[in-house]
Request: fold
Amino acid sequence: MPPPPPSPADQRTLPSRLQDYDRGYAAFDWAQARREVTDLGGGRLNIAYEALDRHLDGPGADRTAIRFLPRDGGDPLAITYRALNARANQFANLLAERGLQPGDRVYCLAHRIPDLYAAALGTLKHGCVFTPLFSAFGPEPIRSRVEIGEPAAVVTTARLYRRKMADWIAETPCLRHVLLIGDVDEAPEGTVDAARAMDALSAEYTTRPMDPEAMALLHFTSGTTGRPKGAVHAHEAVVLHRVTAEQALDLQPGDVYWSTADPGWVAGMSYGIIGPFAAGVTLVVDEAEFDAERWYRILDEQRVNVWYTAPTAIRMLMKCGPELPARYDLSALRFIASVGEPLNPEAVHWSRATLGLPFHDNWWQTETGGIMIANFRCLPIKPGSMGRPVPGIEAAVVRRDDAGGIERIDAADETGELALRKGWPAMFRGYLHEEARYRKAFSGDWYLTGDLVRRDVDGYYWFIGRGDDVIKTSGHLIGPFEVESALMEHPAVAEVGVIGVPDEVTGERIKAFVALKPGHAPDDELRRALMALARKRLGAAVAPREIAFADQLPRTRSGKIMRRLLRARELGLPEGDTSTLEGGDDRLRPCASPTAGGG
Ligand code: ATP
Ligand code: MG
Reply:
């Protein structure tokens, strides 16, 4: 049975933009949001249908879906929704031709190239499960994730295949198909030049109607706190992706939107592919790695309206100083947002002064599938706060009791664990092969996030720290973020990671690792100045006892400071799983421009 014709994208009963937070929150209804997703028969749906097919019958069909900026500075390539849909259809046909069945897993190991987007959506069209991996992973992290998830196929490039997979692929018999995208001179033995094979296949494909609960995505967590977990997501996740793309990121049809998230990470999927296409925007895809000057040029030349990035990138931009952005016209920007780590208040002040508008922080996890807490356009920002819950999301601050239950903390400004009431569409449906661990993440109706927060009287949530990172000193519970943000106020400081070190007297004492901006010397005078600043801002009990200077802090590939690694190194303990640690072979270039004062 052919699916019904696409419903016009503008036939909406829910407003796509949140005008009044309290009213929008009170009126929100998941059932209504679900009804706005195209019913492909008997309540079935497909993420890819929402991202692509749905646009084909309306004015969105010939809109640019992807504006691809080649690494080497060559001419941008524009791909319309119609063309991207056709290419995704060819990929779906390739999977069908090779005998892949719905439910089979397809891994993807590639940097941002146009066929990655067609492969992701073509995989979903065919009912297969898509799993992105960081292209910067070494052979071992790739292999171990293949062993956990047992994909039937992997989509990658010839270069990545030769460097990272060829040596061990014979030992993973589950992986039957290696599909190469990008330039392929000669496909190595046992691989398929997928780009060429797709060219020869039909551009027609009937997107498969899927059960809303059918597994669509498998995402590995960032591994910040330990071994990465494989979070399972269902097709109905698209309901949240679309609503939050519109309400939390302010995406409107026709907007030019740039997400800098790596496609190997959940953010690169939820808000680098699904959410934006479901919202009908033009997605800017930059093939290159971070480079401050290039980034400002992209914001200017591409007339970017909405920009979604991460604190680690923002800190690198801040490190390069205000002269660089002053040379570019950033007037097309309407909304800028950040995710992945706490956003220091300093970054909000800086962006207001330097870019002309403030970063809106938002909070979510691989497990939540999409944005849960956000600073909305219609609400005043409190710098340092993650904002308020997304409409449809009930959040609470809780304390775990000894019997495995939880107690809600309703009073304002009390620290506790952030909990979310079960039942939103993008909630993870399991950790692959780790049923007990999954069950442990819930208490009754609540999902326990593992992050400590407080909620203020106005209902804004403030991040304190990950449960594992919180420091207990002299009877106080101290979140590293608070201490880090105070030190970030010093003009010489580029980045800070704070940990607790065991101490006989206080339980733990606070130690800060500080990376400096270019042109600042790590000397005792600066150390004393930083101590004084911390004491003034935080009080003597909370100020760090020790400050060490570091060239760089260890981070995950998704840009998160790995405090557990700082702690392990400090205490001479085993480093644990470091598969997601950012390596030395793909060093980012913070300030390419010599006039920007660094390099
Ligand atoms: P793992 O679970 O493997 O240790 P991870 O938690 O870093 O890794 P992700 O799911 O990528 O993996 O990251 C989610 C976490 O990132 C959140 O639980 C939170 O600790 C942190 N985070 C994300 N956004 C924010 C934010 N806006 N403010 C503070 N912390 C954030
Ligand atoms: Mg986590």
